[in-house]
# Entry
Amino acid sequence: MFQHTLMGHMVIDRKRFIKSLSITALFNTIIALFLTHLEYGGGFAVNFVFSQCIGLSICTFIMVGHLLLKDPTGLQHFLLILTTMTLGALFGSLLGILLAGMPFTGIFQGKPVPFFQLLGLGILFGSIITYFFFSQERIAQAREQMQEERIRRLDVEKTALETQLRLLQAQIEPHFLFNTLSTVLSLVETDPIKAGHMLTDLIQFLRVSLSKTRAKSATIGQEMEMVRAYLDICRIRMGHRLRYRIQSNEDLKEKPIPPMLVQPLVENALKHGLEPNVEGGLVTVTVERDQHHIRITVADTGRGLNVSGNGGVGLTNIRDRLRSLYGKSGKLILEENRPNGLKATIEIPNG
# Structure
């Protein structure tokens, strides 16, 4: 019913204020019907006027009291309710007498409606109304606190998730980097020109890949360029043992995806599939989509992998990232690539 402003004052929430008065008016009408049924007072019209005056006055006095007394303590809140309820009942009773056209001279003689009985009934029913709205206010405050706590928890979880994703992404590069530098060192003596080309390609690749690692999102086109650069560097090291093919529709180039998801699959295909084979093999990267999903598949013709296992740190990281970003809608599927090799498919929502 009340809200704090930026300046520290309290203002009435108009929507909740009107709702409170409406509920109070309905409750007052029920009281008037009840008193009339008991044949108390001067008929329904008089009881209706008095009930509305007393009930609405109590409700208004309480809300104004809360507006004037900011952040009351427990005792202050009790005294505030007691004072405003009494003043509201008194003011409402006098207002009811005035609106009903009754003479003030006869109110203490019990004609036509005993004043002190009206005041007592006003305080009694006002207590019920006050308790109702106080309970509603406490429930609303509890809901707001729960919502604020939920937002704070989500912010903490989001920060932790972003930190986790950065750590997971940071684990992608070392294997490729160490192998490439080792190859460059070995080529410096035997083929310095080739070593120079490889080092130039590596610098360019790292410049692009590090910028993508820091980014929150990338496009499929950028990821495919990254994979192509990665495979070109690996082909200098592996020579004719490595062949690759990238297949992606042109209309998917600008589709956003999380960065650095595809490269670890290609790295895994080389490390576990082609490098152990003397003859090497073929790596195929395919991007396709249907109405609900985008699927990025990395297939190799190497030695394959035990698909019942987790497939190492790289694949575990991808699973963790997909679960964090998409929940059950993000999947990493490992299956046999017949006649030999492994097929790893990332499946994410198409939306």
